[in-house]
Amino acid sequence: MILCKISDAPRYRGITPLLDKAIDWLMENQSAVFTKGTFYIESDDAEALRIRVNCEEPALIPREKATLEAHRKYIDIHVPLKGTETIGWAPVEGLKHIRTPYDEDKDVAFYGDTAHSLLHVKVGQIVVFFPEDAHAPNIGLGTHRKLCIKIPVL
To answer: Residue 11 and residue 27: Cα distance in Å, rounded?
Structure first.
């Protein structure tokens, strides 16, 4: 897991080529105005190599209702656009309470364990979750606006 300012994200280039492309795109577009919906920033011929950007306006939920989730096929970058996003975190390898087993088609498993840490991600920051990082997003009150960038794991 990486938590940093958007301006510091280029330090993490080199982890994977598609993460590099996502970071470059984010650096070039960090002040853009986004509309709710999904679009792609990587358009290689292979569908599996496309980087997906979801511009979301989710309702926030109380911490006690937040559920840890983990992915195997994607790295997630969460980018708050309006308001702070609180996200729970725990290492997948230590989780013991599977709420919903891994679904390969949806690339997600849900866990009933409690998050080890809470991250308060502010506008101007990003958090990167790798397959070994379970995360419980959208904790708080009200609504917020964010990008969730889904990067295929190579």
So the answer is: 12
